[in-house]
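FW: tagging you since you asked about this chain on Friday. Here's the raw sequence from the shared folder, copied in full. Didn't touch anything.
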Amino acid sequence: MKILVLNAGSSSQKSCLYALPSQNLPEHPPSPIWSANIDWTVAEGRGLLKVKTPLTKQEIQLESGDRLAGITKMLNTLVEGETKVLKDLSEIDIVGHRVVHGGSKYSEAVIITPPVKEAITNLIPLAPAHNPAHLEGINAIEQILGKVPQVAVFDTAFHAKIPPKAAVYPIPYQWYEQGIRRYGFHGISHKYCAQKAAEILGKPLKSLKIITCHLGNGASLAAIDGGIGINTTMGFTPLEGLMMGARSGSIDPAILIYLMREQGYTADQLNEMLNQESGFKGVSGISADLRAIISAMAEGNQRASLALEMYIHRLKYHLGGMLASLGGLDVLVFTAGIGENSALVREKACEGWDFLGLKLDTVKNNARPEDIDISTPDSAVRILVIHTEEDWAIAQECWHLRTTIE
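HL: got it, structure written out here
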């Protein structure tokens, strides 16, 4: 079975192709037979397409900013040139899309139908940087591949079972009735990591209380009890919660009222400040990239040091909130760019939890761990570093749905 996965962002289009058996899914994530990425930020009105197969790599300059033309060119590399892995695009059996916002209606992956597309469209105001890009990909596949089944895998779906006490905001209830609530994001990653943690430990997922830390440029935590997400740090939008690369995370909302009244800020200016000029970037004045922050710290930059101290403080603060929701903890998981690659962040995040019996093995932590337990043998809480596989998680959803419609 050939499964194409599209993961569209506001400024990129990542894709990969899996070749899977029709009868049994592999026990471990296989490597895609083809992967591609379009970066639309390299130049105004242009893009850069990078394609990779097990045998070759290729870079193609896209002279137009036309997204449909770019996706068409990307798919053509599946059947032509050095990166050819298919005889014809008709060999693709099903296409899966990561969709950031599915609202409260969708609690699982679904076959894309006109009503599903309408729902994704209606949710654009809640994910203006992402849902339009997802629709572009869905429409492009319809035009290029015709009636091939397409699947929407929602980032919000895993959090759909968060109880009202965590999902409802303490504002007039009428706003909750109109859809203003905690939705949560990174759900594909949180779900995959919880399942992988149970597999690594050889324990039933239903028996575990887990906190997953998805720490990348965007970041969120999830409290998972028996495989069910019961709380998370991101909320109505991906802005709430942790301090991030360029996003502020949670702040006093009265700050925004003050800036509007006293400084004349507009809604658009506030949105740009909170989402693009805050977090590591705003505090340090250097970069949204943790690696640049750590380099500046080594040179004695005090604002860079403050940015990291704030990041760790807020991470541990929100870890405490997830811990309280669970009423206990069996497993702490680190994943995504920072979670998987920064031994320093993992070490600092694990400090101060002695009362839980949580003990980090610093030697394992510093040894570039992947999909392993980095806690000491006598730690009461297992600490795992897991390489998140969102594309594989989407492909698995497609595989299961494909078998139901054949």
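FW: The chain is about 35% helix and 20% strand.
HL: agreed, and The chain has two domains: 2-154, 200-385.
FW: great, closing this out.
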